[in-house]
Amino acid sequence: MTDHISNQTDSQENQQMGGQQKRYIQEACMGVLDRFMAALNAYDAGAMDATMHFPHLRFAGGQMKVYEAPGSNPMDLFYRLRTEDSWKYSRWDERELIQFNNKKAHYALSYTRYRDDDSVIGVYESLYILTLVEGVWGIQARSSFGP
Q: CA 133 to CA 28: how far, in whole Å?
């Protein structure tokens, strides 16, 4: 019953915030997602860290990993993607704000990974949770159906 009451409260908060607040949250979060993807495609783990809040949770490939602090994101990420799949870059396909309040936003996402020759490696659906911490929006958790 508590969960139901909590959901009603969140829903009421959303209605009270109105369109202007929702647009602000969408713009802020989309900017974070754009910077995250740009950092990923630039093979820049430090810039990826700058878009995240820590501790950061990632659930993918059937495993849950917690990155406790900046710099704890596995540095072999880019090497593994390039050697295993000939990955060159990724691109967002869809980004939909599905739930939010003034401190947290849930995004249903899909993205495509591409090889050097622009052929598709795969299309993956994900859920990203962005939070507002000390006035800054960042990615707090990611759950992906991708590897």
A: 13
Name the burial class of residue 107, with classes exposed (0-12), middle (13-18) and buried (19+) by CB atoms within 10 angstroms of its CB.
buried
Amino acid at 71: G
The region, left, alpha or beta by phi > 0 then psi within -120 to 50, assigned to residue 5 is alpha
- The two tokens of residue 129 are 């949770």
Per-residue pLDDT tens over the stretch 100-140 = 999 999 999 999 999 999 999 999 999 999 999 999 999 99
pLDDT digits (tens, 9 = 90+) for 1-36: 433 334 445 555 555 557 888 999 999 999 999 999
CB atoms near residue 49 (< 10 Å)? 20
CA 60 to chain centre: 12
Predicted TM-score (pTM) above 0.90: no
